[in-house]
Write a structure and sequence with these properties.
By secondary structure, the chain is of the alpha+beta class. The chain folds into 2 domains: 97 residues, Trna Endonuclease, Chain: A, domain 1; 89 residues, no CATH class. It has a 4-stranded mixed sheet. It starts with 21 loop residues before the first strand and ends with a helix.
Length: 210
């Protein structure tokens, strides 16, 4: 279990020549992130969608990989552990003066390669659709609605049935509440790992599954 509370600020680095720029908003962090590769964007979706991950930071520092200094793509922590995340396309970087390498002896290192990102692409693709709904409804979903939905899905219910049951409210907020519960790990939807989100996607309370 992680006992040491750490936090990081993202390195402010210029965009690499020819790199794409992805500006996103993280509901988990409550702030914007700027990423410079598709692989970093997909890794962010994996961290954002993981209910067990309670904190992370993009570009937290530098570390030495095979004798070369590289930018660490992410630092991430859960209740059980914290780690540094490196992608398979980590780019060597010049170390600014006065900036020390991260002590890799203090962290586990998680390598997320192209194969792992490809295997998670249906899951992250679904979150790419759900996160804008979460962001748009941020602060608008009442706890009473979330609680009622969580009780309703004590048995698996398709999204269509959930929206119909709570149709007296704003349907956008009902959907946002479902996605927020999933984001927090209060409900589960295992099919989202292998199938695209639809009105037939089934959601069930995590307590009912334990």
């Amino acid at each position: 279990m992680v006992d040491i509370l750490r936090s990081f600020e993202p390195l402010m680095l210029p965009r690499p020549r020819g790199a794409h720029r992805y500006d996103v908003f993280s509901p988990k962090l409550g702030r914007r992130l700027t990423l410079y590769s598709r692989s970093a964007f997909e890794a962010w979706l994996m961290l954002e969608a993981d209910a067990a991950t309670n904190g992370f930071c993009e570009r937290p520092g530098f570390m030495v990989v095979d004798g070369q200094r590289c930018v660490v793509d992410f630092w991430a922590r859960s209740v059980e552990r914290e780690c540094l995340v490196l992608l398979s396309d980590a780019i060597p970087a010049c170390l600014p003066r006065g900036c020390a390498d991260l002590d890799i002896e203090s962290f586990a290192v998680r390598h997320i390669d192209a194969a792992e990102r490809a295997a998670a692409r249906v899951w992250t693709g679904n979150w790419q659709r759900m996160l804008p709904v979460l962001v748009a409804a941020r602060g608008l979903v009442k706890p009473s609605l979330s609680g009622a939905i969580e009780r309703f899905v004590v048995k698996p219910q398709p999204l269509m049935a959930i929206e119909r049951e709570f149709s007296t409210g704003d349907p956008v907020l009902v959907r946002a509440a479902v996605f927020e519960l999933l984001h927090r790990g209060c409900v589960q939807a295992s099919s989202l790992h292998t199938e695209s989100l639809s009105l037939h996607t089934s959601f069930v309370s995590s307590e009912a599954m334990s």
